[in-house]
């Protein structure tokens, strides 16, 4: 037996004994309809299991309410927190998020985005520096509004949201110097997104201004396991660092575990460590990691507010600061 999926507005009108336009007005915010008509329509809709087809209604206004989230490394705690904040904010604005995973740099990503565009997605938010610039081009050519988060592209008609990563790196060096550290390293991944490289370059530049050198090691992706390998490389050297600034918190956690358990170094007495992102694990008693908190909620608010603005599309750019969260992985400042 065939199953009927959708109930039409015409069927609701017939059950309620009203016109088709009365049904439409009943479910249109602010439209004029009598209390009795509204009661009859809503009762009929409930009995029949009717739901408004917002997609069809939006397409009549040339809007679908769909926003693509183009994301890589979705399983990392920071990326998950940003996706959570964005989807909550989009839902509060009656928009629907469509998630596209870009971990694989092959034609599947391009095909998924084209499929999303075929559903008349209004906009896309690219959450990382990994996806190829061709994805940005495809979004703009399709007439979408576009938000770029932590990317180094300057595109007409797009909103760019970036962090002041280099300033954070300078504060990291200052914290190490105040703790009495004298040998510095930066632990990075090989992903080399603009934000990760800005932290590395900023840390090196701040050290050079003080007449100091920074040992840089890069390995793999921005994961705990990469931190394990990076710690081995740095701590096997003849001259080991007493301060390591890590590109993110997952790397920092791997570095700390190897330093303490394999090399028997005390943190922060023998080695000071600073991370980036302020993920939940950073506050765990096992780590008590000093780190920089990204303004996740502010990023979500600015992105969705801009997408909800129906005025002229112009170039906009925001560079947001980060908060240094002090915990136990850096020694107290020496007098």
UniProtKB/TrEMBL annotation:
It comes from Neorhizobium turbinariae. It comes from the Bacteria. Residues 7-61 form the HTH lacI-type domain. The keyword Nucleotide-binding does not apply. InterPro entries: HTH_LacI, LacI/GalR-like_sensor, Lambda_DNA-bd_dom_sf, Peripla_BP_I. Pfam families: LacI, Peripla_BP_3. This is Substrate-binding domain-containing protein. CDD domains: HTH_LacI (cd01392), PBP1_LacI-like (cd06278). The keyword ATP-binding does not apply.
């Amino acid at each position: 037996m065939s199953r009927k999926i959708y109930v039409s507005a015409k069927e609701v009108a017939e059950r309620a004994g009203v016109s088709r336009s009365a049904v439409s007005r009943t479910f249109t915010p602010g439209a004029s309809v009598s209390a009795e008509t509204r009661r009859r329509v809503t009762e009929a809709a409930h009995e029949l299991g009717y739901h408004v087809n917002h997609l069809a209604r939006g397409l009549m206004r040339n809007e679908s309410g769909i926003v693509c989230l183009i994301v890589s490394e979705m399983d990392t705690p920071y990326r998950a927190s940003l996706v959570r904040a964005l989807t909550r904010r989009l839902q509060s604005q009656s928009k629907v998020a469509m998630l596209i995973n870009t971990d694989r740099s092959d034609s599947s990503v391009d095909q998924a985005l084209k499929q999303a565009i075929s559903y008349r997605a209004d906009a896309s938010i690219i959450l990382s520096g990994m996806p190829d610039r061709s994805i940005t081009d495809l979004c703009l050519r399709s007439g979408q509004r576009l938000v770029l988060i932590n990317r180094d592209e300057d595109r007409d008609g797009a909103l760019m949201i970036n962090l002041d990563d280099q300033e954070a790196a300078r504060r990291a060096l200052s914290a190490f110097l105040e703790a009495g550290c004298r040998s510095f390293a930066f632990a990075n991944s090989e992903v080399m997104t603009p934000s990760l490289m800005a932290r590395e370059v900023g840390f090196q530049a701040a050290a050079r201004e003080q007449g100091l050198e920074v040992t840089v090691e890069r390995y793999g992706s921005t994961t705990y396991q990469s931190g394990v390998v990076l710690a081995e490389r740095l701590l096997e050297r003849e001259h080991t660092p007493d301060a390591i600034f890590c590109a993110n918190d997952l790397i920092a956690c791997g570095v700390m575990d190897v330093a303490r358990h394999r090399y028997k170094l005390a943190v922060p007495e023998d080695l000071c460590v600073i991370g980036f992102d302020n993920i939940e694990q950073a506050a765990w008693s096992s780590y008590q990691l000093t780190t920089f908190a990204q303004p996740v909620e502010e990023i979500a608010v600015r992105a969705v507010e801009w997408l909800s603005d129906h005025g002229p599309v112009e170039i906009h750019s925001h560079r947001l600061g980060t908060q240094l969260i002090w915990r136990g992985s850096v020694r107290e400042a020496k007098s």
